[in-house]
Amino acid sequence: MKGKNESIKGAFPLIIAHRGGGILAGENSIEALRRAKEAGSDYSEIDIRKASDGFVVSNPPFIIQGGREENKGKVLLNSLSVKEAEKEGVYSLREMLREAERNGVKLMIEIKEKGTAVEVYDIVEEEGVKAVFISFFHDEMLRLKRERNARTGILLVGEPCDIEGVMKSARADYLLANHKYITNETITGLKGKGIKTIVWNINDYYEARSLALTGVHGISTDRPSMLAKLRAEMVEGDDKK
Questions:
Q1: Which distant-in-sequence residues (6+ apart) come within 8 Å of 177 by Cβ?
Q2: Statement: 14-59+91-238 belongs to CATH 3.20.20.190
Q3: Domain ranges within the chain, ordered by starting residue
Q4: Which of 5, 49, 204, 219 is deepest in the core (most CB within 10 A)?
Q5: What average pLDDT does range 43-55 have in this prediction?
């Protein structure tokens, strides 16, 4: 456990609101984007799924329909049009992008389905939004880098033997690692090799403080206001990236 008098010089890690800031409002919602920015987030991460005629913002690939619990059923998003999904409370990608543009929200966009990355990127570009694209599908991120020169990150659940090799093969800008499978020592070592690590998802104050001292590039969280408070305590001059 780190003492409260410890500080870091320069910039605090990027604060990234998980699922748009879903703990503040409905996850992957416009209201969550607004509240996450107000809470001090540098980025909001949103999840993109394919509808039958476009793209929507949702973590699961389905919605739950029905009134009483026994009548509820799963309906796959890819069987619905964007308008049908919107009627069920799911936001369209374009609507979310326009909200981000209006309010100056920076986005990390997770590609949830294989074969959709380039199409999603092109929509984001059409809307004039600058974003970082991330995915467990490392080949999709490599394609985005080759064909669109996008800023990309690769998601990992686990710590491979050759992180440098994985990053190099995907030509990724960022490594997004699950906090359960990466140590502070590894993060510090990767920083020394020029690899920018973002750790997800951190909701504990003291764990976030410990990570900040490693020089981690970013921290994804469901509690952006907690990290904003920590930033104010730790950073000399409260500088932000």
A1: 156, 159, 197, 198, 199, 200
A2: yes
A3: 14-59+91-238
A4: 219
A5: 97
